[in-house]
Amino acid sequence: MRSFLTTTAVFLLMSFMLCLAADVAGNTAEPQPAPLGLYALAAAYAPYCRICEEEKALCWDDGTVLYYDDEIEKESFEVLLDQASLKDQMAQPYPRHWRDGAPGVNEDPGRIRNESFFRKIYGESADAVRAQLTDVPWLNGTVISFTRVNGADQALARVREKMMQLPPAAQRYIMNPSGSFNWREIAGTRRLSMHSFGIAVDFQLPPRLYRYWLWDQKGTQEGSVYPEGILSDDRLRCIVEIFESEGFIWGGKWHHYDTMHFEYRPELLIQEKR
Ligand SMILES: [Zn+2]
After folding, report:
1. CA dist., res. 180 & res. 196, Å (int)
2. What's the pLDDT score for residue 273?
3. Which DSSP state fits 197?
4. 246 CA → ligand 1 middle, Å
């Protein structure tokens, strides 16, 4: 019995000392490594901003600081969309794999955006963005107006080169761009569309694949239903995978789907690789 008590006492004493040591270690202000999402942002936009403020923010040379985490709990999905922090922006990983079913409710990787960040990178006004635009030749002989910032135009040009290797039947899907730069708010919101920054392009896909959640919702009580049929189209899959290989995300992977929409978001593809 005595040896049991002694063993117990020694054990309790050691536990206490370990707890004390852990507490002391916890109180020393060891800098915490930056979250992966912040690394991905800094890597994808390296010429413009860097990690700073004890690994908690992005900083620009002009003194602008954007904190990664605003530490605000968003009470609804709409509030999250309207007031997203950088952390919120990176919270949903963009799936590089081809989906085999509909995304979950409000699974919209890339659709939750911190507008201040995009204004800072691409321009605070229509004129500021316009000054950075260039014409990227497209497959049908027209051009797509796209930003030069962060090499987005070059990424789109590489997409075009890869598309030229596809069979004509697949090329037809993306032959006709239906919109690129356009400084405007997203329908029904006060949020700027990514078309405002010259980093998004829409295509006139074949009618069965050309789907937007708000169009499908009109006149129904229950809202839009993700069009899973689009996922069995191999040509569409090839096109999406080419865009993704150059740092673009596709709006067809969102619960709030926008199947014609491709957007240059290299930070989400970097994060997926990690
Ligand atoms: Zn679009």
Report:
1. 8
2. 58
3. G
4. 17
Centroid of ligand 1 to alpha carbon of 202 (angstroms)? 5
Domains (range + CATH), the chain: 125-266 (3.30.1380)
Low-confidence ranges of the chain (pLDDT < 50): 1-27
Coil, strand or helix at 255: coil
In angstroms, the CA 102 to CA 231 distance is: 9
> What DSSP character marks residue 206?
-
Rg of the Cα atoms in the chain: 24
Contact in structure between 249 and 242 (CB atoms under 8 Å) = no
Q: DSSP character for 196?
A: G
DSSP string, 71-115: ----SSHHHHHHS--HHHHHHSPPP-SPPSSPPPTT--TTTS--H
Q: At CA 142, angle to CA 123 and CA 204, rounded to 5?
A: 85
Rounded distance from Cα 171 to ligand 1 centre (Å): 19
The Å distance, Cα 29 to ligand 1 centre, comes to 45
**Distance between terminal CA atoms of the chain?**
55
Contact status, residue 263 vs residue 110, Cβ threshold 8 Å: yes
Ion ligand 1: residues, CB < 5 A: 200, 202, 261
According to the model, what pLDDT value does residue 215 have?
Answer: 85
